[in-house]
Specification:
CATH architecture of the largest domain: 3-Layer(aba) Sandwich
Number of strands: 16
CATH topology of the largest domain: Rossmann fold
Largest sheet: 5 strands, parallel
Number of domains: 3
Strand content: 15-25%
Helix content: 40-55%
Shape: globular
Bound molecules: zinc ion
CATH superfamily of the largest domain: HUPs
Distance between the termini: 35 Å
Number of helices: 16
Strand order of the largest sheet: 5-4-3-10-11
Radius of gyration: 25 Å
């Protein structure tokens, strides 16, 4: 299996550090707003990376950090007149909900920055001790001039980095490209006590504090959006390798391409900011997931509703055919061969896995499914053996891509839902709407959407 790494700028044979164990880290969101479809692109892509590795027999331990303390959070909380903590909790919950809807389920551990401040302080102290960082007026900065490999991930030269460093007048720093490990408290900000006084962690060290803690000094896969390569990931490499002396800190750096909207970068100021929630008001979650996966993860996606509509149609076409196959068990045990279906299955399977083995090329893998869907549609689905092979392949595909999951697999017993709705009806009659609403919310978490019309309540599996 080949995997492209930003560090080597080429596809490399995938070989984890230790046998079949894969340790994987992906930069999670800063929880200050509704997740947008750019987030969806990265997290759906990385979900498939983890799923595919697991499918291939690797034991994947996948950690995502959550940035729950940051300037954006503090500012937004101030605007809304609530505590930073409360704002972060609220948007973290929304993030989990959105990911659940998109069937992003492969993360083993979410680690919040504010729960790792102790580790962050320890790393900062160690960096000062080793001479890689310095304190200045209650702030601590990483001294980029001490780390000669700075720029190796983004492929930039040091002079370019200095020229490119934001011209921010900061008299505390020795050099403009130095970055903050610890920030001293400003009036009214949340703070933690540290050897340098009250303050809070910088962004980059949050990830290394978490990843070194859970994944060790070197690990296999680090993923994230392409916009994070510099300075964020560059800074992570500098921190980790300075601390441990072990190179490389990460074996494979996987970066997802940009998501544009009608050719432009998504920005609140341009009015083209699309949240996951906003899209899911009009489209099925699996349509969005399919749309995102019907592109290679490193390619940029130019989002438009026209393309999303096309994806919707394509997904439904595949899904309908696959369901037809999944419902059938074949009728002819004597091996009434269905040559065409059998042959299409073989070539499709080959193409699918070849594409997945080529740097998780979901675009090509999905393209390989269309001829199979076509063959299912025209097949009598009689040959028991072929039908069973088709079904088992669809099951694998669904496990890998997180699409085409049969609703039966969710194991929902209609009688139980009816019983719950019966109780909800009684509550509504007694005007206990708060409880009735909670039942609705709980069912929704289990993937069951209910709809009241008059006294009747209908439900469907979402
Ligand atoms: Zn990060």
């Amino acid at each position: 299996m080949l995997v492209y790494s930003t560090l080597s700028r080429e596809k490399e044979e995938f070989k984890p550090i230790k046998g079949k164990i894969v340790k994987m880290f992906v930069c999670g969101p800063t929880v200050y707003d509704y997740p947008h479809i750019g987030h969806a692109k990265t997290y759906v892509a990385m979900d498939v990376v983890a799923r595919y590795l697991r499918f291939k027999g690797y034991s994947v331990f996948y950690v995502q950090n959550i940035t729950d303390i940051d300037d954006k959070i503090i500012n937004r909380a101030r605007e809304m007149n609530i505590k930073a903590e409360e704002l972060a909790d609220r948007f973290l919950r929304i993030y989990y909900e959105d990911m659940e809807k998109l069937n992003v389920k492969s993360v083993n551990l979410f680690a919040r920055a504010t729960q790792h401040v102790e580790e962050i302080i320890e790393q900062t102290e160690m960096l000062i001790e080793k001479g890689f960082a310095y304190e200045s007026n209650g702030n601590v900065y990483f001294d980029v001039s001490k780390f000669s490999d700075f720029g190796k991930l983004s492929g930039q030269k040091k002079e370019e980095l200095i020229a490119g460093a934001r011209v921010e007048v900061d008299e505390n720093k020795k050099s403009p490209e130095d970055f903050a490990l610890w920030k001293s408290m400003k009036e009214g900000e949340p703070f933690w006590n540290s050897p340098w006084g009250r303050g809070r962690p910088g962004w980059h060290i949050e990830d290394t504090a978490i990843s070194l803690n859970y994944l060790g000094e070197s690990y296999d896969v680090h993923g994230g959006g392409i916009d994070l390569i510099f300075p964020h990931h560059e800074a992570e490499v500098a921190i980790a390798e300075s601390l441990t002396g072990k190179k490389p800190f990460v074996r494979y750096w996987l970066h997802t391409g940009f998501l544009l909207v009608n050719g432009e970068k998504m920005a609140k100021s341009l009015g083209n900011f699309l949240t996951i929630r906003g899209i899911l008001e009009k489209y099925e979650p699996m349509t969005l997931r399919f749309f995102l996966l019907y592109a290679h993860y490193r390619s940029p996606i130019d989002f438009s509703y026209e393309l999303l509509n096309e994806a919707d149609e394509a997904y439904k076409r595949l899904d309908t055919s696959f369901r037809r196959a999944q419902r059938s068990e074949g009728t002819d045990k004597e091996g009434g061969e269905d040559r065409e279906l059998k042959e299409t299955l073989l070539s499709c399977k080959h193409r699918f896995f070849e594409a997945m083995d080529d740097d998780f090329n979901t675009r090509e893998a999905i393209a390989a499914l269309f001829p199979l869907a076509k063959a299912i549609n025209v097949s009598p689905l009689s040959d028991v053996e072929t039908v069973s092979e088709v079904r088992s392949f669809i099951k694998d595909v669904s496990e890998i891509l997180g699409l085409f999951e049969s609703k039966e697999e969710k194991n929902i017993k209609p009688e139980i839902i009816d019983a719950i709705l019966d109780i909800r009806k009684m509550l509504r009659e007694e005007k206990r709407y708060d409880l009735a609403d909670r039942i609705r919310a709980k069912l929704s978490e289990c993937g069951i959407e209910i709809e009241d019309s008059g006294k009747e309540t209908r439900w469907k599996i979402s």
